[in-house]
């Protein structure tokens, strides 16, 4: 029986410790259960396949386990087994995608809520895709959230919290599940292969992890499909062939042909794709993904794609043969941007034939800039090149960068924790909020500060974007000026002394570096 279960069911995490890529959430929940202070209303938010319902089941087990160890369920007591096998009415899963109306709530959920637990200690109601509940359905539930019967725990899961009313949200303890990092996914796939006594080349696993786009369940489903083909060992080319994907090698060649306006080479690849039945949307998707990663690499390396993999930011891969120069090595940021923008325009809501024609047109030199494009100011500006709003000359008074600076820190730490790229289809959703009110214009003070700086200090701060608020002067450095930021930080005392002359005594100076993801997002949303 167990043999026939899909991989993602068989290898589903059954303890907090087994959850992949959600360490902070797992820790918080385990502690809350152990200390007996878990709220009665939880909201799990995150993209599909990131472990929301798996975590909800673990919470249900942990709350009911007869022999828990420091918040972890034992997995072998009658309560744990009943929950695992879905053999108890006290832990119920329901999906609002199929039962979202007021009648569904009245007939199915309310009786479950009002009756006390029958065979377990706590009643746990796991409701998935709750953004699909109608307003009436929520109204019926809200009453029970406000005055919950003793012992009940509601766990709401959703991919889209913006569709849930504030009155509901305010009553729930929220946990944000992030897309699972590629190395976490690759690690789990490797473990599964080992247990299944099957083999796969690291490139094949890396490709699957990348295709899964942060969703463990998708990765496991794809692996399932590939293993059932019987191919062993699994190579990257097998993954592409079996999943009907355009080969990475061809995608790189197509990108090169587009960048060079080499129509014959590019058209040959496109007709090869057509012959093999490759979906033009998938081709465009993979092309966009490659260009995005190349842009990321170019931004981090200071302007163009580096030649060897050791200079890539952590977690970023560009593929290619080990030891050989990276694909698209030496390609300039401006050229990659132009292609990225063209691909984005191409992708929005087109039919197959239309998209194929669009890809062909990209090969016919349509990328050559005949008129100034939106990328022009980026290329022309010498100093903080990453921000469209940045001044043209390095010594000129810089515009206040309060909104960027204030969002840079949290974004940067999140990016460091999860180097995986965002889904290529939703770059706009990832744009940092710009609703933060900008600080008062700092240009006069900044000009005076630069004038007051001694010759050894001035070059270290001239390229930074200043923002002053609440007694703190934040200096934002672009990624390519990382060494400047380090040297400036080494002279913090001196810089604070100069700042005190201009901004007043006691001013603090903060040195921030714009992380690559933020920079990329600014560039990306500039399309
Ligand atoms: Zn147990």
Provide a descriptive summary of the structure in words:
It is a single chain. With 527 residues, the chain is an alpha/beta fold. It has four domains: 2-176, P-loop containing nucleotide triphosphate hydrolases (Rossmann fold, 3-Layer(aba) Sandwich); 182-242, Orthogonal Bundle (Helicase, Ruva Protein, domain 3), CATH 1.10.8.60; 248-362, Zinc Finger, Delta Prime, domain 3 (Up-down Bundle); 402-516, DnaA, N-terminal domain (GMP Synthetase, Chain A, domain 3), CATH 3.30.300. Helix content is 46%, strand content 8%. The strands form two sheets. The protein has a five-stranded parallel sheet with strand order 2-3-4-1-5, with helices on one face. A three-stranded mixed sheet has the order 6-7-8, sandwiched between helices. Helix 9 (202-211) crosses helix 11. Bound molecules: zinc ion. The site of zinc ion has 9 residues, from helix 4. Residues 65-67, 73-75, 77, 79-80 line the site of zinc ion.
